[in-house]
Fold this protein.
Amino acid sequence: MATARKHPDGAASAGATIYSVAERAGVSIATVSRVLQGAGTVSTTTAQKVLDAVDQLNYVPLGAARSLAVRHHEAHGLVLPELTGPYYSELLMGFESRAAELGQSVTLMLADGKADLARAVRQLATRVDAIAVLGSAAMPPAVARALHGQKPVVIIAGTPQEGIESVRAENAHSAEQLTEHVLAHGRTRLLFVGDPEGAPDIAERHAGFVNAHRARRLEPAAPVRVPFREGEGAAVAERILAGEIEADALVCANDELALAIMSHLQDAGRDVPGEIAVVGWDDVMTSRYVRPGLTTVRQPVRELGVLAAERLHQRVAGGQPRLEPQILPTEVVIRGSCGCPTR
Amino acid sequence: MATARKHPDGAASAGATIYSVAERAGVSIATVSRVLQGAGTVSTTTAQKVLDAVDQLNYVPLGAARSLAVRHHEAHGLVLPELTGPYYSELLMGFESRAAELGQSVTLMLADGKADLARAVRQLATRVDAIAVLGSAAMPPAVARALHGQKPVVIIAGTPQEGIESVRAENAHSAEQLTEHVLAHGRTRLLFVGDPEGAPDIAERHAGFVNAHRARRLEPAAPVRVPFREGEGAAVAERILAGEIEADALVCANDELALAIMSHLQDAGRDVPGEIAVVGWDDVMTSRYVRPGLTTVRQPVRELGVLAAERLHQRVAGGQPRLEPQILPTEVVIRGSCGCPTR
DNA sequence: CTGTTAGCGCATTCAA
DNA sequence: TTGAATGCGCTAACAG
């Protein structure tokens, strides 16, 4: 029995292993591993023999076996609520591209339809070295709890949690700036449309809205709390048309909402921004195309993804968590819907 | 030496293994595995002890080890060119949700910035059981070649390859229908904007464009070959404004292109659809918001993703490839930009 | 420069 | 109902 080959292999190309490659090349598995990893030193001729064998057998290494041996998945997890609109996609693109550069594959999970998020996250944790999670709603706490600190986590655009890294875009200041801009147009009855409690991002934007009022010693009205779905826009518009809500300017939680409201109002014959100004957040593509153009705020979403991927990578490499949240600057984009003259 | 515990474990919760759990629960690792997999039969009390231990140690199983043992990654790969616009995102959402339902995680790869696509794909193949790839450009051939039939592959919206499954949305017929609709408006100088050679989808749409002309015994003009990037739209519009291109209707390869052209033309004072009609493809959000609304074609993109995930799953389960491409129906969406009266 | 060997952590026979 | 033993395919010392 002694040193009998434990891996008899089958000539079948499907299922070629490092053993079959080694045998074919007439070398040991260690040598195969070396040339494939580019580690150690192998003579050119030997290396070529191995490469040939790999080619002939069409050898595809088993990632799981490698992961088990190196004790790393070489994969990052990303948990997003969903993928509608450009925001999440941009984020994902940034994340994926940076992760790929760092040699990490990315396993994506959408919280959307999952009945048991915590379970899904634990399952994810099983296959990745670290996890980034977008901060909307209750996701990060759920994720953090499910992981119990077992894996590095970074929260993207969410409320920082005790001991968890986070990266996000600046909100409060630009919201204040944007609101002040609208106030400077002489508008007096501003309404914040969106639910500050729906997401930390929104809460911060609302805070900026409030601050802009305070700075002028004005009393901000209570926010119109609606989810920031496109569909909600029509309903809000209806309430305005019905006189149920009164305002001469709407500061919306995001562009989708702003666009839906603006469009609906215009269809009903209202003049935007003449009778009522509307501003949004995100600078989605549509905002450039509608008339008047939507005044909004642009966030460095892609960079957020890049940053998250980098943070995870550093953590996996043994780096210490950087607990001060990293905040990326945003940019107010003025177009016509706020009342500014259109060119 | 004999039967000494090979896995000394460390009380450290980080890195709990099936061994530490077993020890803590006072059972064997086989039992731990059984209760965690819900396989075999374990007494209620024993099971509870295990569960408690899992909880206390905060045990997160190592997916790689499981994969190695069960000889499955329990993950599907998805290769997309990029993620701009709603198309890819929708597809991804469908794919992810269905994959998740089937207990598979999804590893995403964006071809976008990758210098060596083939290499990246082989790397991906290392960690998944099967791969779905979007059919634009040269991706699927490259992927297929890189895999050499080692893993099940399904091509989404691409040219079917010998022996490879594919799913896609119907193109030619609806393109013909759309073109005929424009012709029926009395337009005579139609131009197809987009590169038929850029993607198989586009080629089919162009074929439909041509067929609609043939049916009326009209000679279709040569296509205006441009990549379907938003940026290209402006250039095309400029050529039209300069009189370099003449047309009374534009059938564009997708909405982004159509919107950019239409907007540019309108800015220059042209009447759309009065002087020139414009139609697109995809029914992106913006198309509903612009004036006139963009006439376009809606595809069941999400379903495409769902289907792809299902196909992969069946294949991994040992099912035979279904070689006839599966084709999902699309829907022409008439709005105002084609010349139809706006409500 | 190359081969031997010992795990990596889990699922799974096979006995008991 | 449970435990002992084996192997999944690969990496990484350690020898030679």
